[in-house]
Each structure stands twice: as structure tokens, then as C-alpha cells.
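Hi,

Apologies if this is the wrong queue. I'm a grad student, and the batch job for Segregation and condensation protein B from Primorskyibacter flagellatus produced an output file that my downstream script rejects. I'm not sure whether the problem is my script or the file. Here is the sequence I used:
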Amino acid sequence: MAKDRSEPDLDRELADLPPELRWREWMRRIEAVLFASASPVPRQDLARVVGQGVSVDLLVEDLVADLEGRAFEIAQVSGGWMFRTRAAYAPAIRVAADVEDQLLDLSEFDVAVLAAIAYHQPITRDGLKDIFGKEISRDLIGRLHARDLIGTGPRSPRRGAPYTFVTTEQFLVAFDLETLADLPEREQLEDAGLDGGS
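Support response: The file is valid. Your script probably expects a header line. Output copied below for reference.
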């Protein structure tokens, strides 16, 4: 029988501890939850392991300060927080571990198509064809889908109800975005010569 998640065996309030130790324990609980999760953990999930009315944001701020100078950090991504290695240590990880399969390894055109999907979602392959002036291959869409950077959106209301494509939470994580609102403004991309022809 599955354990009821709404009634965990956890003393959230920690009333028997002095305030400073209570705060430190709540920080460690948040650290443990983030460490155990492979995806961003939203505020409401972290609030389940601390006392009622306690500021998760302040606990995370203190934890971030506590981790200063470490090889990893807490990043706010996709509406939650997660641990990640600091960018300065990426070369060491590549040398020590076989992480080539984990790298995005996208061509410039793949990134342009991904950007078009991000800015115009939900969008069909025909919509992408209108932007780029050429057919976008199913293989390219498949590669982006296999890396979980895009997913299937709602069916288009057009004749034949073609599939549309949208970005995923993994897209936000891969590009270090909290939300799609964090994408660069299209005018900035055009100024940089990266407008994708739209």
C-alpha cells in the first residue's frame, strides 16, 4: 500500500529546537530535497518540509550564501530551484567524466529552429517553413524532441489538425531560463543578426 503523501512522518515545526538550530535544520532539509531531485523543485514542494509560514525564499537565500565558494550552486530555473555545477568547473567535468552524450551538441540551424519554436509556440512545421523559407525536416524535429527540448502542443485548428510544437521544462533548464519571459527580446536578436528570418 502506497504511503499517503499528505501525512508524512515529519516534524515540520521543530518547536523543541532553539530558533537558530531550527532555521539551520530547515536549510538542510531544503538542501537535501534539492540534492535528491534531478529537476527544479518548486516553492510549494519545498514549503512541505519547513514550518508553516516560514519563508522558503529566505531559507534558499541563506543556503546560497552557505554554498559560496563551493563547486556547485543553487539556480532558480523553470519556476523552482535546483543544484548545478558552477560553469567554471565544466572543463574539469568533461576531462574526468564521459559527458559528451549529455551535451546538447546542436547545430546553428537546430538552435535557430528551437528559438523559432520558443518565440512562436505553439507552432506547426508549416509555420516553421514560413519563417525559414524551407521545409523543416522530421529528423530535426525528432532530434529536438529526443533531447526533450520540445514537446507536442495542441493540435492546430487548421485543416488536417497538424501537430504543434512547444518548448519543455528541459528547454528552460538547458538554457538557464526561469520562464519563457526570460528569453532575449526579439529586437536584441535581430540587432545581433540572429533573427531567423521572421
